[in-house]
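Record passed on here:
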Amino acid sequence: MALESDERVNTDNPQTDKPLAAIILAAGQGTRMQSDLPKVVHAVAGRSMVSWVVDAVRQAGASRIILIVGHGADLVRAIFEGQDDIVFATQHEQLGTGHATACAEPELRDFEGDVVVLAGDGPLIRAKTIQTMRRVHSETGAAATLATSVIEDPTGYGRIIRGTDGRFEAIVEHKNASDEQKAIREIYPSYACFDTKLLFEMLSTLKPDKVTNEYYVTDIPSMLTSNGHRVELVEAVPPEDVLSINTLQQLADVDAILTQRLESAGVEAGS
């Protein structure tokens, strides 16, 4: 579901008054990749998958980029050696996306602005998606803005739950969803923009999942609404951009999609 007509915003000019930072989650090992390399180091269209994510947040205006590293951290750092807008924060234990995001707090403690949080294994992310999300975030004064997508087969993805008024209520993971919720095709592809201070305030009180004992950043938007803050949704992610990479087959699929996109734009893969 897109924004209602009286809530539509102009996305032609992505600039806002606030500075933008980015937190890219890149600490995972990727056990299904059949490799000892960190997952985000694997090549897609001639470059590491995390490099495409960094390009997107830069093009969207991020002036400070924090890469959360863990397994094979030195290999990830080597990709961005000498790039002054990138700093690294280490997740020493794999305790979930909320824990990973919280690892960036020391680097953003004095940052006055907004922050986008996204995964390093989603190289299909486009700068214009981030720009659209950020514009909605700025013009509505939201504490958090989530980019969503409507896809034919939402199996495995977190579902966006809306209230009767069409506004955000929750993100429900597939494994926790009821049959009715599993029928929802609007999903959360892990692109979010937050007010930086509110994000870390909520993370400081985040509770672990009762089943996995991990901390999930997907719980933060519901926490914000429970505390009286505004959370916005914008259907800004084309269905073909949703696929992230967890297996070698998905790596091949994304490589083909991204290579075709580059060829259509007249850009050589790997450049």
